[in-house]
Amino acid sequence: MSDVLINTGLIAAYILLGIAALAAILFSIYHLVLNFKKAKGALFGMLFLVVVFLIGYFLATSEVYANVAVPVGAAASKIIGGGIITTMMLIGLAIIAAVYTEVSKLFR
Predict the structure, then answer these.
(1) Are 12 and 45 contained in the same domain?
(2) For the chain, what is the domain count?
(3) Which domain holds residue 87?
(4) Could you read off the pLDDT of 22-67 as tens digits, one per residue?
(5) Do 57 and 78 form a contact (C-beta atoms < 8 A)?
(6) Residue 1 has what pLDDT?
(7) Are 52 and 90 in contact (CB under 8 A)?
(8) Residue 59: which of 78, 73, 77 has the closest Cα?
(9) Taking each helix axis from N to C terminus, what angle separates 74-106 and 40-59, rounded to the nearest 10 degrees?
(10) Residue 8 has pLDDT above 80, yes or no
(11) What distance in Å separates the CA atoms of residue 45 and residue 68, rounded to the nearest whole number?
């Protein structure tokens, strides 16, 4: 096949992917505005995740390590560390929730 045909197909796929992502975001916002009372739970969930990430971000250090494959700056290092700490906190919360659920089932 010709490189031109492959490149055109890839560009068309990227454009269609962008349109689909934009449509998904816009329809979500549209239905959020229409059904705001039903969406409160989802909004509280998103707010909870933002708060957990901010806690992880503020706990992370901005230390830059010299011997790494891809060197990053201090800001990127803090964001990456915040993401890792957030992941660990969410895993811990999931384990606590699973243990609580199983223990509460024993006493029913």
Answers:
(1) no
(2) 2
(3) 37-108
(4) 999 999 889 888 888 888 888 899 999 999 999 999 999 888 887 8
(5) yes
(6) 66
(7) yes
(8) 78
(9) 120
(10) yes
(11) 35
